């Protein structure tokens, strides 16, 4: 049997690390890049020295692989256009050089309210934010690459949460990761649902799709439904996890984002995303279910409990 090898770009991040672990569970040999010194093999991953911004480094790291997962993200919200686009172009060059499938985690930032309330594959991408416009450009690069013969896959999901997701709405707004839970904050409207993707489930879906790589079309655009949760459901899951029904549910301080936007890049970018919390949005996963038979799904209470433990917000019992 031919050895299955995958290169994971961004394996030190939440989504990249979760996908690398899922691929290992599925029997893939996983290679990852780092700009720092690292043991040759760590946690089953073969680490090589390289920079995701340098196409030659990515091409060299991708030698012998059938799949390249591109999960690299610029830190925080800084210089997305200047960093995200060149990194993706480097991964595309590596996929073209080695005939590998390029797998990309998509977001809902690419879309405006004209795609609501149920987001279908092929919906028009009319982003309202700077980050959304960059994400749309990134997917346009993938479509252009497939026109040249490269194979690509986009699996789109809502906002991430999970034990590995230390930079997320869940860990930085709904609760305060790394500290005991004292209160719960909800960025959306009362009773308004929001799409979340539990990272271990999403990573499992990526691994299952990688296993079926040869069965997929040249360009696949799929949606991961995940958890559609409102404020009451999320607050209830957090309260049950920590065993404290008295935890208060408060509102996210959007006013603070507005005040700080002129002076702080993070505040400005977060404020631009407020429209995603004003209306309920679901992702249609019919195509994904048709391919896999079912979408990987962990019950909300278990997902929230494991997330709080992984984020250091409650002890493991």
Describe this structure in words.
- This is NAD(P)H-binding protein.
- It comes from Plastoroseomonas arctica.
- It holds the Pfam family Epimerase.
- One of its GO terms (cellular component) is cytoplasm.
- One of its GO terms (molecular function) is aldehyde dehydrogenase (NAD+) activity.
- By secondary structure, the protein is an alpha/beta fold.
- The protein has a domain of about 210 residues: NAD(P)-binding Rossmann-like Domain (Rossmann fold), CATH 3.40.50.720.
- Helix content is about 40%, strand content about 20%.
- It has 12 helices and 15 strands.
- The strands form 4 sheets. It has an 8-stranded mixed beta sheet with strand order 3-4-2-1-5-6-8-12, with helices on both faces. A 3-stranded mixed beta sheet has the order 9-11-13. The protein has a two-stranded parallel ribbon with strand order 7-15.
- Helix 1 crosses helix 6.
- The longest helix has 19 residues.
- The termini are far apart.
Characterize this entry briefly.
The protein is an alpha/beta fold and 317 residues long. It is built from twelve helices and 15 strands. It is globular.
List keywords for this structure.
eight-stranded mixed β-sheet; Rossmann fold; alpha/beta; 12 helices; 317 residues; three-stranded mixed β-sheet
């Amino acid at each position: 049997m031919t050895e299955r090898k995958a290169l994971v770009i961004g394996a030190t991040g939440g989504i990249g690390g979760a996908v690398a672990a899922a691929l290992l569970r599925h029997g893939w040999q996983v290679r990852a890049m780092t700009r720092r010194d690292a043991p040759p093999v760590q946690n089953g991953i073969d680490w090589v020295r390289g920079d995701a911004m340098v196409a030659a480094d990515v091409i060299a790291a991708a030698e012998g692989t059938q799949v390249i997962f591109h999960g690299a993200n610029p830190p925080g919200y800084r210089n997305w256009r200047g960093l995200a686009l060149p990194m993706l172009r480097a991964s595309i060059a590596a996929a073209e050089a080695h005939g590998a499938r390029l797998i990309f985690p998509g977001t809902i930032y690419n879309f405006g309210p004209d795609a609501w309330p149920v987001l279908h594959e092929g919906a028009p991408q009319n982003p309202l934010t700077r980050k959304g416009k960059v994400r749309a450009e990134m997917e346009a690069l993938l479509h252009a690459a497939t026109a040249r013969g490269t194979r690509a896959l986009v699996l789109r999901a809502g906002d991430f949460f999970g034990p590995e997701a230390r930079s997320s709405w869940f860990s930085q707004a709904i609760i305060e990761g790394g500290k005991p839970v004292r209160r719960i904050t909800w960025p959306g409207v009362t009773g308004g649902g929001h799409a979340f993707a539990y990272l271990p489930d999403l990573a499992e879906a990526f691994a299952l799709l990688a296993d079926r790589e040869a069965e997929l079309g040249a360009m696949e655009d799929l949606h991961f439904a995940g958890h559609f949760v409102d404020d009451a459901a999320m607050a209830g899951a957090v309260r049950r996890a920590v065993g404290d029904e008295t935890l208060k549910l408060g509102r996210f301080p959007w006013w603070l984002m507005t005040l700080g936007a002129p002076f702080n890049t993070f505040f400005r970018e977060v404020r631009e995303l407020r429209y995603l919390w004003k209306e309920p949005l679901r992702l249609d996963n019919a195509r994904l279910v048709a391919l896999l038979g079912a979408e990987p799904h962990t019950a909300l209470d278990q997902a929230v409990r494991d997330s709080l433990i992984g984020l250091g917000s409650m002890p493991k019992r």
